[in-house]
Amino acid sequence: xxxxxxxxxxxxxxxxxxxxxxxxxxxxxxxxxxxxxxxxxxxxxxxxxxxxxxxxxxxxxxxxxxxxxxxxxxxxxxxxxxxxxxxxxxxxxxxxxxxxxxxxxxxxxxxxxxxxxxxxxxxxxxxxxxxxxxxxxxxxxxxxxxxxxxxxxxx
Length: 155
Prior knowledge:
155 residues; mainly alpha; TerB-like; 64% helix; globular; disordered N terminus
């Protein structure tokens, strides 16, 4: 199946300004992983959620070249890591890969929140994921509430 050449939009920050360092490939990989985990944690993908996840991944710098098979392998690889290591271990690995940049940490939390809110229902596993991410990414309660309320308004 051929993909149309249309502009994809991403939640990722625009190109870094002169004073902001570009996120590493490991940080970008972690952003893709956090979106994938958040989309799948409730055990099902809501109508349109798989497409939104694919669009988000393909809009992430470094991943726009993926075809459907490569995208499927990437998501499968993330699922296998989660199955082998568990979500808490993957969340710690995500936080470590993202590093200290507060903008990238908030982007990861926003991505997770976006996919948790996608189906307009937050189940216990999704809430626990957001709480783990907030803790591991060192996001204050105030910032987490701000990010969540902004995304809830958009959904």
